[in-house]
Amino acid sequence: MNEFDLKQYIDISNFLGTLLGPDYEIILYDMKHIIHIVNGDISGRHSGEALSPTIKTILHQKKAADEKWLSNYRALSANGKILRCSTFYIKDKSNKLVGALNINFDDNRYRELSNLVFSLCHPDNYVSKNISIEIKGNNDQEVFSENISNAIDEILKRIDKSLPFIKLSQLEKLDIIRKLYKKGIFSMKGSVKAVGHKLSCSPASMYRYLDIIKKENS
């Protein structure tokens, strides 16, 4: 696809970024790299970078050649954010796939705001124990991950624990796993093993912790 052909999509990307606001990341790709990005701080990506494993997977699926777009799927970015994403496949006059336009929505601010709204009508300790906005798994929907191990590392860095994870008590580990659960990490294949490795927990211990958390949320 030549430079002239791409210009219209760059203008559209800027338009969508202005229209939708700062919680929407707009990325224009050719088949090799990012051509243009708006609100790139959401995923931490930049113009000129190579295609991520996530977008490579999407562009090489058979449906990319047959369909016009892929909408409302979830993707875990490399910086640990679970985003709601949609991809518009860009094709030339011969219907050959030549690129894509992605819209990625980060709803973290809205989930935080919902908890603040609940806090206006309930005591804080009631909200923390009884009300939670969480991402639920969906067995019918694939969750794309650029690197689940790196994403888990990024999230764990934000959890304020002074001790090495191997020295944490069972209650401290349960609290960390609870926070990861609320972020939707465990809706992704391989996440239980990856988190267990980070926290030095056996698979049996991980499933026991998850059973406790699921009962808390039932």
Commentary on this structure:
This protein is an alpha+beta fold and 218 residues long. Helices cover 44% and strands 19% of the residues. The protein has nine helices and six strands. The protein has helices at residues 3-20, 53-59, 62-66, 108-121, 124-130, 148-157, 170-182, 191-199, 203-216, and strands at 24-30, 34-38, 69-76, 82-91, 97-105, 143-145. α6 (148-157) crosses α8 (191-199), α7 (170-182) crosses α9 and α8 (191-199) crosses α9 (203-216).
Q: From N to C, what is the helix and strand string?
A: HEEHHEEEHHEHHHH
Largest sheet: 6 strands, mixed
Which structural class do you get from the secondary structure elements? alpha+beta
Low-confidence blocks of residues: 137-143
**Radius of gyration computed on alpha carbons:** 20 Å
Count of individual beta strands: 6
Strand order of the largest sheet: 2-1-5-4-3-6
Percentage of β-strand residues: 15-25%
| Termini gap | 51 Å
State mean pLDDT (0 to 100 scale).
81
The share of residues in helices is 40-55%
C-alpha geometry: globular
How many alpha or pi helices? Answer: 9
